[in-house]
Structure formats: structure tokens, C-alpha cells
């Protein structure tokens, strides 16, 4: 029988000696084992000494998960999209947290980071479906009022003293985790008392609906973020329209 004894002091070493005398194989587990003392009490035969911390789970697992195994796990998990219908709302999510949990338990920090980056980058297609309209929301921090904003591409849209021009609005295909991104150019118009002053450029770049803090507008009064994209310019890949299939009109009854 194989016996694990945690603690290789007086009690653990003598317990190991009795187990060895009974014909068992013993593993002594201790943070700082005194190997000379263990050898004197329990002997050398059928006794293995492991120096590690019980709280350090990755150190106890040999072999641990390599980075390439984690990358494969993240890739497979991001590919599997789960759709749930609850009453009138639908929810979609991936299994990306599953390899993350295994990585936290069974891998080193460096392997976890490398596996997550490579696995997610290999799968991430990103928003690719172009749309005509960027759906935004604007916050007036003075009145705490949130207003919906519909910004057609290339046409200036106004919110307070801000002029917003959406240059592009893209979203992910239905088979991908939902994400919308818009390229916005935002300027602040001069006050009416100084109409000849030039507008001030405030923001020019991509905003992401899922991560508004990654690329945000910095303004003391207003805040603007992306909500969605509407009116696709071309049919999404994989749809019936994209494959050239149209619904036929039933013949008129005689």
C-alpha cells in the first residue's frame, strides 16, 4: 500500500518507520524536511521525501499544463458558443472561463498568459460585418440624462455641443460572441458667443460596446459610448441571402 504522510517531524517520521516495517511504501510530505533525521528514524528504503507547500497546488502537480495545451483549450472554448433562451430574452456566452480555471489551478502564470493570448488570438475574428448606422448613447453629466443617438455613417450627428461623425460600424457574425465596434470622430463646437473659433478635436478612433473603458471619450460634461450597429451593408456570412437563396412567392390560386 502507498501511504502519504504530511509532516516529517517526530510523529511523521516515526509513523513512516512503522508503515515501512509493515511493508508499505511511504511518501513523506513537508515544507522543509530534515532528510538526515528522516533517514535515521525511518531508513532509506520505501520512503520518498517531497519538499513542497500543500497550499501551492501547481507545485504538487507534475506535469503541469503547458502553454500550448492552454492555447488549444482557449481556442476550442471560444469556438463553442452556448445560446440560452430565457423568457423573451436570448443570451449567448462562450466556455472561455473553463480553460481559465484549469490554468489557474494547473499551470504557471507565464504559461497561462501565453496560452490565453495565443488561443484567443487564433480564434478572434472580431467585428467584420459593416453597418450603415452606429447606435450610441450619450450621457450629460450635469443633468445625469442618458440619450440615445443614431449616427448614420458619414453624416454629422449632434449631442449637446458635440459633433459626432461615425466612419464605420461593425459587428461580429451570429456565430461569434456578440461585439459591436464603431470608428467615431468627435469634436466640440464653439459656443454661440464665439462662433468663429475652430472646433476642438476630442476623439478619433474605435469604441467597443463590450469594453467602453478601453477607448473612451474624455470630456468633463459629456460621455459617449457604442451600443450596437444597425442596417448591415451586406448580408451576414452564412445567411440565406448571402448564399443567393431567396424566398419564392407562392403562385396565385386559381
Would you write up a description of this structure?
With 254 residues, this protein is α+β, with helices and mostly antiparallel strands. The protein has three domains: 52 residues, 3-Layer(aba) Sandwich (Rossmann fold), CATH 3.40.50.720; 57 residues, no CATH class; 104 residues, no CATH class. The chain has six helices and twelve strands. Strands 6, 7, 8, 9, 10, 11 and 12 form a seven-stranded antiparallel beta sheet that branches. Helix 1 links the parallel strand 1 and strand 2. Helix 4 runs antiparallel to helix 5 and helix 4 packs parallel to helix 6. The protein is elongated and about 95 Å long. The N and C termini lie far apart (88 Å). The C terminus is likely disordered.
Report on the biggest sheet.
7 strands, antiparallel
Q: Roughly what is the average pLDDT, rounded to an integer?
A: 77
> Secondary-structure element order, as H and E?
EHEHEHHEEHHEEEEEEE
- In which range does the helix fraction lie? 10-25%
The secondary-structure class comes to: alpha+beta
Count the helices. How many?
6
Shape: elongated
- Number of discrete domains: 3
Runs in which pLDDT lies below 50 for 5 or more consecutive residues are 245-254
Number of strands: 12
Distance between the termini: 88 Å
Beta-strand content estimate: 35-45%
Radius of gyration: 31 Å
Amino acid at each position: 500500500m502507498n501511504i502519504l504522510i504530511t509532516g516529517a517531524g517526530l510523529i511523521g517520521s516515526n509513523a513512516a518507520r512503522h508503515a515501512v516495517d509493515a511493508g508499505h511504501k511511504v511518501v513523506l510530505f513537508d515544507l522543509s524536511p530534515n532528510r538526515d533525521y528522516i533517514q535515521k528514524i525511518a531508513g532509506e528504503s520505501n520512503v520518498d521525501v517531497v519538499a513542497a507547500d500543500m497550499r501551492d497546488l501547481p507545485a504538487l502537480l507534475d506535469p503541469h499544463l503547458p502553454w500550448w495545451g492552454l492555447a488549444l483549450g482557449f481556442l476550442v472554448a471560444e469556438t463553442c458558443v452556448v445560446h440560452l433562451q430565457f423568457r423573451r430574452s436570448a443570451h449567448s456566452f462562450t466556455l472561455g472561463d473553463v480553460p481559465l480555471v484549469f490554468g489557474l489551478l494547473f499551470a504557471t502564470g507565464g504559461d497561462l498568459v501565453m496560452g490565453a493570448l495565443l488561443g484567443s488570438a487564433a480564434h478572434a475574428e472580431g467585428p467584420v460585418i459593416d453597418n450603415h448606422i452606429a447606435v450610441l448613447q450619450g450621457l450629460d453629466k450635469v443633468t445625469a440624462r442618458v440619450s440615445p443617438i443614431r449616427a448614420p455613417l458619414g453624416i454629422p450627428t449632434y449631442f449637446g455641443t458635440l459633433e459626432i461623425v461615425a466612419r464605420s460600424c461593425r459587428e461580429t457574425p451570429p456565430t461569434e460572441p456578440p461585439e459591436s465596434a464603431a470608428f467615431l470622430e468627435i469634436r466640440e463646437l464653439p459656443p454661440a458667443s464665439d462662433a468663429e473659433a475652430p472646433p476642438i478635436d476630442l476623439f478619433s478612433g474605435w469604441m467597443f460596446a463590450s469594453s467602453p473603458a478601453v477607448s473612451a471619450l474624455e470630456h468633463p460634461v459629456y460621455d459617449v459610448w457604442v451600443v450596437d450597429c444597425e442596417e448591415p451593408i451586406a448580408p451576414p456570412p452564412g445567411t440565406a441571402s448571402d448564399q443567393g437563396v431567396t424566398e419564392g412567392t407562392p403562385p396565385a390560386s386559381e
